[in-house]
Structure formats: structure tokens, C-alpha cells
């Protein structure tokens, strides 16, 4: 019997960053894995203007110049596009992946996802410490305590 490791991936602006993609690739090489990608629907006012780049091998390289959304609607549309691209790239690489946009509050979004599905671990990808609201709020440790699952924190370098 093949055991598939089920990972909840929580990211938004960092969804296409190389560090996260390398972590997902590592999980896949370690054994059968599936990913549920949860994108907290962050309001435009909470975005940080930083460049983003990525490229999960063997998936096509994704490079985005990122100036930040001007409205909440634009923020939602950008998040939805990032989600669609990562799900398409994972699926094209033969990896089972699904996901959705969730609450702007990442803990609430995780709580909702965990109410509907079971996971073996949570992977949180966040902006660098100087920009990250999630790290300032201690989101990874809060999630670990609240949900009783191991949490891997990926901090991007951009």
C-alpha cells in the first residue's frame, strides 16, 4: 500500500518563489505527496511591493514583476492567478494538487481547510522577516499549537 503525504501549503505573494518550489520538489522526491494550496485572500493594503521569481523544475520557470495591487479586487485576481499557475504547474509535473482562496486571516483559512480535509503537515511560505506580517504574528507556531501538525516555515530571500 502506497502512503501519500498530504501537505497543506499556505502562501500568497510567495507562492511562486523558488524557496517554496524547492520545498515542494523535495517532498515529491521523498515519496508520494499531494498538495492542497491555500491562498489567504490578503487585502491590497497589506501587500508588500517586492519582486517575485520562481521556477519549479521540471516545471516551466515563472517570473513575475510585482508592483502590488491597487485594489482589493486586483489583489484577489492576482492571488487567484498565482494559485491557478502553481496548481497547473504541479499537475503538469504529475503531482496531485488542488486549492482555493481562503479568508484573509491565515489561521481562519487554515481552520476552514482542516475542517474539510486531513493533512499530515502544513507548509507556510512567507515574505522575509522584515516584511512578513505572518512572522510578526508568529503564525507558524500558532498553527502548530492550534492544529497539532508539524509546520515547516519557508522564508523567501527576496
Automatic annotation (TrEMBL):
Gene3D superfamilies: HUPs
Domain of life: Bacteria
The protein's name in its UniProt record: Universal stress protein family protein
Organism expressing this protein natively: Pseudonocardia benzenivorans
Lineage: Bacteria, Bacillati, Actinomycetota, Actinomycetes, Pseudonocardiales
Amino acid at each position: 500500500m502506497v502512503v501519500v503525504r498530504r501537505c497543506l501549503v499556505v502562501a500568497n505573494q510567495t507562492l511562486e518563489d523558488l524557496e517554496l518550489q524547492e520545498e515542494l520538489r523535495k517532498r515529491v522526491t521523498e515519496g508520494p505527496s499531494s498538495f492542497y494550496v491555500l491562498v489567504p485572500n490578503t487585502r491590497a493594503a497589506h501587500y508588500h511591493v517586492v519582486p517575485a521569481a520562481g521556477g519549479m523544475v521540471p516545471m516551466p520557470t515563472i517570473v513575475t514583476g510585482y508592483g502590488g495591487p491597487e485594489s482589493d479586487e486586483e489583489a484577489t485576481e492576482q492571488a487567484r492567478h498565482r494559485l491557478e499557475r502553481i496548481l497547473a504547474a504541479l499537475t503538469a509535473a504529475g503531482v496531485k494538487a488542488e486549492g482555493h482562496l481562503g479568508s484573509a486571516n491565515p489561521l481562519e483559512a487554515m481552520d476552514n481547510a482542516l475542517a474539510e480535509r486531513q493533512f499530515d503537515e502544513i507548509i507556510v511560505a512567507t515574505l522575509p522577516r522584515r516584511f512578513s506580517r505572518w512572522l510578526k504574528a508568529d503564525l507558524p507556531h500558532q498553527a502548530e499549537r492550534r492544529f497539532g501538525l508539524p509546520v515547516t516555515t519557508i522564508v523567501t530571500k527576496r
